Amino acid sequence: MKKSAKPRIVRSTAELAEYAGLARTTVSRVLNGHPGVKPKTVERVRRAMEETGFTPNAAAMRLRGKGDYTVGICMETLFTPPMVTKLALLQQRLRQRGVKSLIEVVESGRVHEVVQHFRSMQADCITFIGQFDPAEITNQVAMLKRLKVPHLLIDQSGIEGANTVTIDREQAMHEVVAHLYELGHRSFGLIGMNRPVETVRARLRGITSALAKHGLDIARDALSLDYLVDREHDFAFGREVAAAFARRDDRPTAFICVNDEVAAGAVVALKEAGLRVPEDASVVGFNNQDICLMSIPTLTTVDQQIDETVEAALELILAQTSKPLRRSVARLIPAAVIRRDSTGPVPSARRPRS
Amino acid sequence: MKKSAKPRIVRSTAELAEYAGLARTTVSRVLNGHPGVKPKTVERVRRAMEETGFTPNAAAMRLRGKGDYTVGICMETLFTPPMVTKLALLQQRLRQRGVKSLIEVVESGRVHEVVQHFRSMQADCITFIGQFDPAEITNQVAMLKRLKVPHLLIDQSGIEGANTVTIDREQAMHEVVAHLYELGHRSFGLIGMNRPVETVRARLRGITSALAKHGLDIARDALSLDYLVDREHDFAFGREVAAAFARRDDRPTAFICVNDEVAAGAVVALKEAGLRVPEDASVVGFNNQDICLMSIPTLTTVDQQIDETVEAALELILAQTSKPLRRSVARLIPAAVIRRDSTGPVPSARRPRS
DNA sequence: CTAAAAAACGGACACGTGACTGCGTTGTTT
DNA sequence: AAACAACGCAGTCACGTGTCCGTTTTTTAG
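YS: structure for the whole thing
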C-alpha cells in the first residue's frame, strides 16, 4: 500500500528476490541475519517483504532441518476449566520462549491418530494434558520412547516409564483431612470419589492414609452415597448426593467432593435441607475454579497450582530439546488448600471429646 | 515388537522401502493407493510401517503440494466457555471431514504474529474465533484478502468486507425484550451492557429498537448503574451492581445482563436484599452456560446456538477450499431465548394498566 | 515351455529453503 | 590510477515426497 508499487503475490524467496531486484542468495542471507550485507540492501529486502506480505514457507524450512522447535499438545478435553487454563498458559509460555505449538483435542480412542499427525508434522516433543485412557496412553508413550520422540504427560499419573508433571493428589488430600481434623471433624462424606480413574484413585489413597494417620479408618469413618445417583459428576450430582446425605441420621459433619461443581451442588442441597454451612456441615471442593467464589458461602478447595505445574512442564519440555531424557522424570507439584467459608468447626453437639 | 524383527527407526519412505526390501517408488504407490500393486506387496508395506512406526513427513508432502487441507484457528480467549465449546466442536467437525487444524491463542496486539505463523505453515484458511480488536482484525482481513488467503470470522461483527458467522444479537435482544414485555415489564435494568465492543453494542442497539417497537424509550425506561462498579463483568460485578439497584426506589422490575455470570451474581444480590426472583424481579442472562442451571432459580438466558454456528462456519470454510469467495459472506444465526425460572410476571403492585 | 501381461525397479525432476563456492561488480583507500 | 576489500550474483546441493518413464523382473496365460 505504501508507494502503490506493483502489488504482487510472492510465494518464494526466489520471487521475493526478483521483486526486490536482488539475488535469491542475498535475500536468504538477509532473512537469516548473516553478515556481509549492506544495511541498504537489508532495508530493500525488509521493504519488499512488507509490500508483498511474504512469509517463508515453514514446510520447506522444516524439511531443510531449520524449522522452529515445535511442541504438539494433545488435549483430552476442553470442558474442564483448569485444563484449559493449563493449555492457555503453556502455549503462552512456550511462545515466549520462541517455541511453536500445535494443539489437538482428542476423542477417546483416537490418541494414536493425533500422535501420528504430530509425528508427521515433525513435532519435537509431544505433550498430553488431561486424563487419558491408561492403556492407550501407555501404548503411545511406549511407541514414542521407542522412536526417541520426547514426550510429557501433564495431570496423568500412574503411567510407567513416562515423563509426568502432576500435582501431588495424595498430599493434597492429607492437607484437606488435616484441615478438617483440626476443626474437629471425625466423620466424612465422600462425594464423587468413586470414579475409576487414577487421578481420583490417588486422592482416595491420600484420604485413606491421612485418616489412618489420625487413627481413623476410611471404612468406618467415611461414607459414600455415590451409587445412589447415576450421572456425571457435576453440580446436579453433588446436589442429589448431598440431599441423600442430609436425609440420614448418621450424616457426616464434613464432605469432601471430587470437584468444585459437585461441592457447590452439595452446599446448595445442604442449605435446602435446612442445614447451615459451615455451622452444621463443612464442604471442601477441588480445583479452585471461579465457582468457588460464586457459591455462598465461598468454597474451601484445593488449588491445582497451575503456574507451578506449567512452569515445571515448560522446563521438562525444554530439557528435551536435543534428545529424549535418559531416565524418565516424574515431577510432583505440591497442592495447596485454599481455606474459605465452607469449612468450619464441627457442630458442638458432635464435638469429639478430646 | 511382533516378530522381534530388526527394530529400527525409519525416517523416510526410502528407508522404509529398504526396510521392506522394496523400491521407494513402490512404497510410494502403496501409500497413495495407486493401482497395479499386488495385495501381498501392499501387506508387506503395511507391516513394515507398523513395525517401524513410520509416518510420512507432512512438511515434504506439503512442499510437494500434496498436503492435507489445513485450517488455522485463531482464538481470542480460552476463558469464555462458549468460545471453547465452539473451538472444540469446530475442530471435531473439521477432523471428521479430513481437515487438519492448527490452533493458537492470541494475546491482544499479536494477531499479526499468529497469522504470519499460519501463513508460513501454509494454512489454507484462517479462522478467527472471538472478539478481537476491530482495527487489528480489519488490517489482518485486508491483508489476507489481498494475498488471496481464505478467512472466516466467528463471533465478530462489524468488520467490513470480511466473511463472518455470528449469532444475531439484535434479534436475540428483541426476543428477550418481547418475552419480558409480555410478562408486563416496563422498566429495565441493564447490567454490564456498556462495554465498548461491537458484540455488546449490537445487543444494546437491539434493546433500543425493541423497546421503541413497544413504545418505550431506552433513555427513559431503562437504567444502568454500571459506572458504580469498576471491574470486569463477572459474578461479583453482577452482584454489586444489582445490590446498588436493590437500594433504589426506582428499581426496575426486570434485569438484562451481559452474561450468565453477571446474571447469577445479580440473582444472589437481589435475594440478599430480600427480594424474590422472579416474583419481585426478573433476571435474564446471556450464553446459556452451565451456571444457569446452578443458579437458584435457574436462569432464563439466550442460547448462542453453537451447533448451528459451527455448522455454518464449517460450510463456509469448506466452500473456500479452492479459492477465496468472490464476495464476502456474512451469516447471521438466529439466537433463541431459553425460558427458565428467573423470569416471571411483573409484581402486581407495579402491573401496568392495560 | 514360451510369450505376454503384470509388477517392481531405478533414475529423474520439482517443490522452497539454507548453505556453500567461485566469480563478478561495486566503492573506498592508498 | 591502482589495489583491495566489501558486497552481490549465479549455480549447486540436500532435505523427503509424489510422479513420470523406461527398463527389468516376476507372474500368469496359453
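YS: worth flagging: Residues 11-14, 24-25, 28-29, 31-32, 34, 38, 56-57, 59-66 of chain B lie near DNA strand D (CB under 10 Å from a C1').
IM: good catch. Also The mean pLDDT of chain B is 94.
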